């Protein structure tokens, strides 16, 4: 479904995010106080504007209050990040996603109403670390503060076993929500479904439980 986004702050993260959203078919307004950054992003988005995001009138003139989601992507100026987030929420933006520089910055952003706070560099580092730590893990993605999704290539010790026999829910409190196979996707796996070589499990659970499963796999190798 096509949505309207604004990305404020055309640093590396904001620039890449704006382009990605536009490539997905969404309408994207890119905002930055630096004219060169605006000129650079302009060919890739619906609209690009040079503006001071701490100026409420400037934001209203851009129609920020009418968009589906605003991403506050700057962290070099924490004060501006906080002020911009606050203004967006006060103007009635339904979803405000703010990038945090550190935990204290994140805490303030949450206090003033940010709907979601992200740490792109840290999250990417965690994903890379998980993939390097275990060759079976294709992806490890945090979907909230406490929950994660993991893509796991079925390890050899699980070959020819049923989901019920693996007892992942009982042993680790995680849930298999799908199994990807060459012949197709099993989006509703049952207890008697057998897993085998080449299968990829999509597993969801609390972060601590996903980590417990990963440690167990390390020990079994």
In brief, what are we looking at here?
The protein is α/β, with parallel strands linked by helices and 221 residues long.
Protein described:
With 221 residues, the protein is an alpha/beta fold. The protein folds into two domains: 4-118, 3-Layer(aba) Sandwich (Rossmann fold), CATH 3.40.50.720; 122-220, Regulator of K+ conductance, C-terminal domain (Alpha-Beta Plaits), CATH 3.30.70. Helix content is 38%, strand content 28%. It is built from nine helices and 13 strands. It has helices spanning 12-23, 35-41, 56-62, 78-90, 103-111, 120-133, 163-166, 168-172, 207-220, and strands at residues 4-8, 27-32, 47-50, 69-72, 95-99, 116-118, 137-142, 147-153, 161-162, 175-181, 184-186, 194-195, 200-206. Strands 3-2-1-4-5-6 form a six-stranded parallel beta sheet, with helices on both faces. Strands 7-8-13-10-11 form a five-stranded antiparallel beta sheet. A two-stranded antiparallel ribbon has the order 9-12. The longest helix has 14 residues, at 120-133. The protein is elongated and about 65 Å long.
Question: Strands, helices and their partners?
Answer:
Elements: E1 4-8, H1 12-23, E2 27-32, H2 35-41, E3 47-50, H3 56-62, E4 69-72, H4 78-90, E5 95-99, H5 103-111, E6 116-118, H6 120-133, E7 137-142, E8 147-153, E9 161-162, H7 163-166, H8 168-172, E10 175-181, E11 184-186, E12 194-195, E13 200-206, H9 207-220
Parallel strand pairs: 1-2, 1-4, 2-3, 4-5, 5-6
Antiparallel strand pairs: 7-8, 8-13, 9-12, 10-11, 10-13
């Amino acid at each position: 479904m096509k949505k309207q986004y604004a990305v404020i702050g055309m640093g590396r993260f904001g620039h890449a995010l704006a382009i990605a959203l536009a490539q997905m078919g969404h309408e994207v307004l890119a905002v930055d106080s630096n004219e060169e950054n605006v000129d650079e992003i302009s060919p890739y988005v619906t609209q690009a504007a040079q503006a001071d995001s701490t100026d409420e009138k400037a934001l209203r003139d851009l129609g920020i209050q009418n968009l589906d989601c605003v991403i506050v992507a700057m962290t070099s100026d924490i004060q501006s990040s906080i002020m911009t987030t606050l203004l967006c929420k006060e103007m009635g933006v339904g979803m405000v996603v703010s990038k945090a520089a550190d935990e204290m910055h994140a805490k303030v952003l949450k206090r003033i109403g940010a709907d979601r706070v992200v740490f792109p560099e840290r999250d990417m580092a965690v994903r890379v670390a998980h993939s390097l730590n275990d060759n079976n893990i294709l992806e490890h993605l945090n979907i909230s503060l406490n929950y994660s999704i993991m893509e796991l290539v079925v390890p050899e010790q699980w070959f020819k076993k049923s989901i019920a026999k693996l007892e992942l829910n009982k042993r680790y409190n995680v849930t298999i929500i799908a199994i990807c196979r060459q012949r197709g996707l099993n989006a509703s796996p049952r207890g008697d479904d057998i897993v085998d070589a080449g299968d990829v499990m999509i597993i969801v659970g609390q972060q601590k439980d996903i980590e417990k499963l990963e440690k167990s796999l390390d020990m079994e190798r």
